[in-house]
Amino acid sequence: MEEILYGSTRGGEKNVTASQAILKGLAEDGGLFMPDRIPVFDFDIEDLTGVSYQETACRVMRLFLTDYTEEELRFCVDSAYDAKFDTEEIAPLSRADGAYYLELFHGKTIAFKDMALSILPYLMTAAAQKNGVTNTIEILTATSGDTGKAAMAGFADVPGTGIIVFYPRGGVSRFQELQMLTQKGENTAVVSIHGNFDDAQTAVKNIFGDRAFQERLAGRQIQLSSANSINIGRLVPQIVYYVWSYLKLRETEEIAAGERINVCVPTGNFGNILAAYFAKRMGLPVKTLICASNDNRVLFDFFRIGRYDRNREFLLTTSPSMDILISSNLERLIYLSCGADAATNRVMMRQLKSVGRYVVTEEMRQNMKDFVGNYADQEEVAARIRELYEKTGYVIDTHTAVASAVYEKYRAETKDETKTVIASTASPFKFSRAVMEAIRGELGELDDWEVLDLLKTTAGIPLPPAVEEIRDAEIRHRRECDPAGMEEAVAEILKL
Ligand SMILES: *Cc1c(COP(=O)(O)O)cnc(C)c1O
């Protein structure tokens, strides 16, 4: 198998191995690591029907992570995708109202972030060993609500690592907040910031770019890495479940051999849908990638007019994990669509930083035509949750409902009846109040636990252990700061 090397989307670092790219998280010039080419399947997808999720993961990931041995990769996969998931299938596919819901929330923290963050700590520690790294790897992560908990669940008490999570105060659901604030583990820290997700993500990127600070850390045998989807080690495991969903559709003969499917993804930072695009480029028969946004419809506007413009009001919605105006992973698509020309990408990213917008060329738009964007506002999201429930009894969370509502619009507008997989990114229990309000209307005086119980009865599914876990858990984290004080907070936490 030919080795794949990684380089920065902004042209700085080149010829970095997969394990080095995972260790670093972000390139030194602020760019994101990209493979020097997207590998194609070295198997016939038909031959894979019936194999396990773990086997699928090994077959797909080895094509990207070429400096990991088969044994290393298998160990990472088997350690990640085990009984932590509440179903042997890891990511089951449910059919409802003419679409297929790929349930990515059966892991420990009941959001799709578990799919990649269960394996990232193993990939990271294997990478440290391979590269003779003896420093402590400190993970800095900005979260719109779900990454923080899933990353801490993965890294808690992993020897040689630590993790600090920053989340926007008031910008996550109460359940998400409690999940984070009660996190155990001597090496975990949580800080709420007075700002939104973009502020948190930008400040984390700035800390990565602060050379003097890196040196201070190095003096204490600490180096930084990222658990956000800017880390290529997050993206690669996310490709697997799109391949898996296709195998499931073949197994149940919902589709014919070679039949193309559409994929519809509720999108924020553009990581999940980018993984679907990678799957397509690798050879998965995918036709259209439907990028679903909430009221923060910056990506909808981008795909419609070819201009990215973050200069707009940041709206807090019932799908907080998608409340983002700077979609970091779009940079990887920009880079690909200008023919991997780092100079062009760099100019656009500079414009994004300085004036908050950039315009892509007509040719680049042509190269992105596998994507279509649309959005659903909060009323449409609530209406869709209720409609799907009333029609089928199937209950989806607010993020999945953004995708579901967008898919209905897409189907009505285009008459495209291609079978479609909708990425179901969170358990409805994680956003139970918004989900129950959508189904029942005003909930009056019901407290959070009563709402959870009501949802349990309504959906006819048991409360996941992740819910029980926080019921009596003690609050362990109380730190807060301004975005400008984040570096100082890191210094304090690490006792520099
Ligand atoms: C993170 C998240 C998203 C958005 O995924 P991206 O990869 O950032 O586009 C959507 N839904 C839920 C529930 C999430 O946690």
Report on this model:
This protein has 496 residues and is an alpha/beta fold. The protein has helices spanning 18-24, 53-61, 70-80, 113-117, 120-130, 147-155, 174-181, 197-209, 211-219, 232-251, 271-282, 298-305, 330-337, 342-354, 362-367, 378-392, 398-414, 432-440, 448-459, 465-471, 486-493; strands at residues 6-8, 33-35, 93-96, 99-103, 136-142, 161-168, 188-193, 222-226, 261-266, 286-293, 307-309, 357-359, 371-375, 420-424, 479-481. Helix 2 crosses helix 3 (70-80), helix 16 crosses helix 17 (398-414) and helix 16 packs across helix 18 (432-440). It starts with 5 loop residues before the first strand and ends with a helix. Pyridoxal-5'-phosphate binds next to helix 11.
- How large a portion of the residues is in β-strands, by DSSP E? 5-15%
The Rg value, from CA coordinates, equals 21 Å
What is the topology, as strand order, of the major beta sheet? 3-4-14-9-10-13
Helix content: 40-55%
Number of helices: 21
User: What oligomeric assembly is this protein in?
Assistant: single chain
Enumerate the distinct ligands. pyridoxal-5'-phosphate
* Shape verdict: globular
Largest sheet: 6 strands, mixed
Nearest-integer average pLDDT: 96
Low-confidence stretches: none
Number of strands: 15
N→C terminal distance: 44 Å
Q: Determine the structural class based on helices, strands and strand pairing.
A: alpha/beta
